[in-house]
Amino acid sequence: MHQFWEIISKADNVPIVIMLVLVCFFTWLSFREALKYDRARAEGKTVKQAVYAEEAGFPERVAVWPHLVRQEFLVAIGVTIFLMLWSIALDAPLEELANPNVTPNPSKAPWYFLGLQELLVYFDPWIAGVMLPNVIVVGLMAIPYIDINPKGSGYYTLRERPLAISIFLFGFLFLWVLMVCIGTFARGPGWLWFWPWQHWDVHRVVAETNIDFSDKFFGVDSASPMGFWIGLAAVALWFPAVMFPPLLLPSFRRSEFFQRLGIVRYLVFASLLATMLATPVKMILRIFLHVKYIWVTEWFNV
Amino acid sequence: MAAEQHKEPLDQRTYAHWFAILGVLLVLTSLLSLLQEFFFRRPYKGYVRDFRSTASSEIARQLSEAKALYESTRQSPEFKAAEAKLAAAKEAYSGQAVQGQKKAFEDEMMRAASELGNVRKQLQGIRGVYQEAVYRFEAQHEEPAKETVLKLDPDVDSLSKKMIELDARRKEFKNKIAELALPVSKAQEELDAFQSEVVTLERRLAAVGATDDDIKQVFNEQLKLVDRCATCHAGYDVPGLEGLPEAKRHLRTHPKVTDPITGESVDLLKVHDVQKMGCTPCHQGQGYATGSPEQGHGEVHHWLTPLLRKSDKVVPGLNSAACLKCHETASTLAGADVMLKGKKLVKDYGCWGCHKIKGIGEEEDRLGEAQNDLKRLQQSFAKLKTGYETKVEAGKQSFDKGPTRTETDQFNQTRLAVEAAKHRVDELALEVRRIGPNLKAVREKLYPGWLPVWLEYPKKWRPTTRMPNFFPERKPGFYKLESEEDIRKQVTEEVQALSAFVWQNAEGQTPTEPEHVPSKDEIAKGKELFESVGCLACHRSDEKRPVDAGNVYGPELTRIGEKARLSWLAKWIENPKKMMPDARMPSLRLTPEESKLIACYLTTLKQNDPLPAPAWIEDKKLAETGKQLVERYGCFGCHTIKGMEYGKGKVGTELSAHGSKLVEEFDFGLHEHKMQAEGRFTRQGWISQKIDDPRTYDEGRFRKQVDRLKMPKFDFDKDDVAAITTFIMGNTGVEMHPAYKMNPTDRKAAILEGWRLVDKFNCTGCHRINGQGGHVLSVYGEKPEERIFGPPILQREGQKVQSEWLIEFLKVPYQLRPFLKIKMPTFDMSEAEAISLAKFFAALDGEEYPFHYRARSVLSTEETSGAKKIFDTLQCLRCHQAGQEALSPEEAANKAPDLFLANRRLKQDWVIRWLHNPDALQADTRMPNFWQDGKSLVPDVAGGDTPKQIDMLSEFVMHLKEYGVQPTPPSTAPKGGDSFYEDDEEEEESAPKPAEPAKPEEGKAPAGEPAKPAEASPPSAPAENAPAGTGAPAAAEPATAPAAAPTHGTPPAEPAAHPADAAGGQPAPASPGAPAPADGEHGTPPAEPVAHPADAPPVMAPAGPEPAAPSTPAAPATTAP
Prior knowledge:
The complex is a heterodimer of chains A (302) and B (1121).
Chain A: H1 2-9, H2 14-42, H3 47-51, H4 64-89, H5 111-122, H6 125-146, H7 162-186, H8 213-218, H9 225-248, H10 250-254, H11 256-289
Chain B: H1 16-40, H2 43-74, H3 77-94, H4 96-140, H5 143-180, H6 182-194, H7 196-209, E1 218-220, E2 225-227, H8 229-232, E3 257-258, E4 265-266, H9 268-271, H10 274-277, H11 280-283, H12 293-296, H13 337-348, H14 363-397, H15 405-431, H16 442-445, H17 450-456, H18 458-461, H19 484-505, H20 520-532, H21 560-563, H22 566-574, H23 576-579, H24 592-602, H25 620-633, H26 672-677, H27 683-692, H28 718-730, H29 746-761, H30 763-766, E5 768-769, E6 772-773, H31 777-780, H32 784-787, H33 797-800, H34 803-811, H35 831-844, H36 861-874, H37 876-879, H38 889-893, H39 902-905, H40 908-916, H41 918-921, H42 946-958, H43 998-1004, H44 1017-1020, H45 1044-1047, H46 1059-1064
Antiparallel strand pairs in B: 1-2, 3-4, 5-6
Helix pairs in contact in B: 2-7, 3-6, 4-5, 13-28, 14-15, 17-19, 19-25, 20-24, 22-24, 27-28, 29-35, 34-35, 36-42, 40-42
């Protein structure tokens, strides 16, 4: 437990702990509101009624100034107090003169990049460091254009936006927050897996032999031309495998959702979704089946 | 907020209470941060405040004591006298006379000053015009300007001169006025001196009270340091705070250290200016941190150079480690004892055989480089030679085809370069000494049964050995999966393999003939020789003799009979260097017979008989394994082994930068947690554990034999471990800025190098040099008359001997003092080493090196006869050898050094001082003081003027041959039947002194001198003038060959001269005759003094020179060791 205490009390990691708490809190809060709304709606209330449930007689809108602003102001004061106390209590870790011959072990990125650093375990740096972040950003930018569901604007709901919410929560909580937490708490010297209570032994030795996809399943050397084609096939076939099945179902093609979405938006959406799902799939392959790279090329590996 | 039931709609709620609470909280938080800023986060302010109050109270206490003392002094007569003096001076000053003078002077001064003012005004007026005119004339060539210049020039000149004069006059009178007041100010000063202490303390108190809170910083760009230590350690430079209590020890004055040689107290801060160097070069730590003591001392995680604490728990005395990086060549240094002890241990125990360490054991590297150079030069010369010779041949046919001058020059230069390189290699080879014996001769030397016993645990067989233990005890399971039986088996195998390899790899043949069995007589003689000729200075043969710094130089010989063969020992003792060029043992120039005798004696030193040869010793396979083991353990680092002499490198890690190696880079093995818990997870913790038990870090690990740690265990005690750790910690590998390094001046460098060589050759085993060493003298005894028979004490040797002679002597020693049995060994040192030693002695005494020029004043005829008269009257040649004539042992016992050596050996200035007062220069000498109380014994020469006489005599003695004194030819055989009793005072009384029959008399008498033995009386008058009983002066009954004489009959040279006996009666100062203990002689291990019954002991005790009463007819007497 000593090690656990050391990790969470490290000045760098305190914000992560706070973040965890806050993430849990806000997730719970939003779920509570969403369920309340959904229950109200199930009882037959209108949207407006469901949102402003107990506030009969309350105005629908109030002026930003002063009502919102003063609430914000109070919170700002509170945050200021919190920050001042925090900075008095925990000094910024200004350490001694850096020794260029000594690299800290483990060498961890700032918390907002820990998720990506964790992904480096599973992916080639080009993919984990360039491709995926770009896809994430592009995907986030694309959301307004592919999200055609007008509901849920200004209030919490689950039933009215199941797809959006589940995709988002998966991407945010699982693929982002969880990665950050793993990077903070469960990665020790050598970026080896340490349970939070395990002592960080710099001398620990773990045997990890990972084999490329083509080598493992087909016995073909991944650097050879044959291996190249196998890898290419695997990657190329993944996307249609995820994107096309719904299209093959007539019921889906006829659904209102698809009609409104349109094929273009659908393809964009589906390709993004396929990319997102590829991540945990590769992670599982790596962790449990010790697969190193699916596709090995001269320029990048997947 | 939305979920709760609010009583009011959003736009009707009041948040006033929130504002109130949060506002108050905000103000409080702000106040808190201010408090943090000004009070809590500046701990150093607290320290400074503490300092002010603590130091003030301490100084105030001292002040009150000083005041009380002052008050009491005010009553003392001295004070009153000073007061009276002041009053008198004041009165005199205020008197008419002085005041009148003062007034007069003042008037003069004023007059001069006002005149000066006038002159200056005038000059100012003219000068501008003049200079303008000059400009116009020079630059613009205006004619009218020329006239102006010529007109004004003289005026300007004279005015300037006048100004200068007037100013000088003014100053003169001003000084005169000040002089008038001088007595008063002087008297005032004297009076003030009484309360200087009080004043100082008052000032100090004020200064301390005024210390401000700010950070005090030393910034040095060259050293890249920013040291703020003085902020909290505010009392470091305030004198008088040494006595602060333990809780306030950080405020104490910086302690002083003691100089190890002179015993003086040294203030390190005076030598190392803190304002330039700060604190961290010596103490390490994080100089610029002020946040907390831990931070400031660098005892935080990431600071690589934490404080070197003297009171370090693991390594006490660690603070001296930092001295090394500037004082690289020091052998003694005030305050650095621990570090230097470590350095000496590292040198003595041969750590450098396996580990490369800067500055230690580099002779081999230099030799290697020189050999490479030689090879390179030889190759290029060979190429050059063939080409050149061809050309020379061609040149014989036709001149044009011959070599050019450039080619000839190049050829010659290269040839000379090769010669020089060869010479350098030879010289450097002389300097190499390995710490362990050469293993090439083991077949001839050892009884093979000894090898495995030794190799298993050397210290068990010989407790004082330097060889470490390669097979330290391991508990079963030390290496996982190893049982006790496994351990046993492994050790035995390795020991046998190593023994077999060493045995089989040696050169030479095992002797087949049985060893000579020594007779009792041989043993006795050998023992006597061993104990008298100088072996004891380096070796111990008797367990009861205590270990001292000298006698651990050579191996302990208490059990040598079990180990080495007699035949080999005899050869070895005769000339060690011939058999092993890199041996540390010098040659004592013994004859083969003497060597054999000593060897006979040595073979009796044993506890058991030598073990028989083990059956497996010639097993080839074992030897093969042994060879691999030797490669693994690196035996060639300390021993010369056939086939592994050069180029093998060092098997251990280089230690030149261990002091700055990162803690994480040390392999703590499985002890990491344990040592972290114990606070030993530091550099010094790792190193000290390693030195204490090197293979600890293997404990609990699963390792194959080849991967295991191989450093052997030295069995150091705690203090030694701390010392060595400190030294290694000092090797940071960081080059100090050259401006701050101790760059010894020539003189100091010569002294440092000299001490290094003294250490190397164990000079201090025999000689006491400037008060240090002389360990073997304890064997002879403590009294001067005993010590005189030991190795001479070297006090002021630089003043005494000529450097050129000393260099020659060190390279090829010979006997100087006939009465000494102990011999100066031939060390076979290189020329450079001999020169360094000569420089060393010269530097110790501040003498010029190498030449000491002294103008010679040749004696006139008159002076010559006067000097001769003194020379004869004092009978110098009665005691001093004259030429290198051979002496019988009895004669030798009382002979002083050859006077004809003085010309080359001694410095005349020293001779003069010596003649004035020998005792002052050499405490144990038997040379009498002929000019007591400045009175001469020969009053009619030079009017009895002592300095003049001594001058003349010294000139005479330094150039004896020129003045007609001839040395005795060396062919004079010693006469038997001589015996010399020291008779000193008893001379006048009819000492039945052994006379020498007339013949021997002229043999050793001052040859060619109308020796005046008859004049012996004058010299014998003063008590001290007891010349060693050299040929009884004529005063002694010449022909009364006393009983003793005849016994000397036959064997002339046998009896080891009994210097002891003879010396017995020769105490330098007063008590002549008394000392010679009738027992043994003077502390030398009393060998059976076979006092011959027939000896008529001389009046006083002095065991008369037992002229040999050999117990066996032909065998030499066995007296006086």
